[in-house]
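=== RUN LOG ===
request id: a7f3
mode: sequence -> structure
chains: 1
length: 155
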Amino acid sequence: VNWGDPLGAAAIMILFGAVCAGTAMLMGTLFKNDQQAGGMGVVLGLGIAALGGCMIPLEFFSPTMQTVAHLTPHAWALDGFAILVREEGTIADITTELAVLAGFAIVLIGISGFRLALRAESRGFRWRRPRSSMGRCRPSRASNRHRSRACRHAL
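=== RESULT ===
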């Protein structure tokens, strides 16, 4: 199978993988157990994939549905692959598609990271800096009064 420019194809796959990772993280923060996440994951995954043009080419959609389809990352990834394969494009030709996929990934990972932090704090986990940093304070046999001020503070 000729995927077009290998660098462009790899960029699309990596960014789409990041979108998938962000979606999976978000689902992990939204549902209480893996059965809920698994059930909804299949329904949402198939629904969004169908809407994005993975089951029926976007060219068969009406102009309105094509616009709606581009609310999904699937449509942008498919557009990128279409440019690479059909038009023999390069990575420079798919910068818009890559930027949109990167935006999806950043937003999804950001939201899921925020929700994960909120969930962890609600369960009693406290986000703290470590008491001392490696390399800054070294154990010594000298008494505390001979250590630097930063190292005494870290104790």
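=== NOTES ===
The mean pLDDT is 85.
Residues 95-122 form the longest helix (28 residues).
=== END ===
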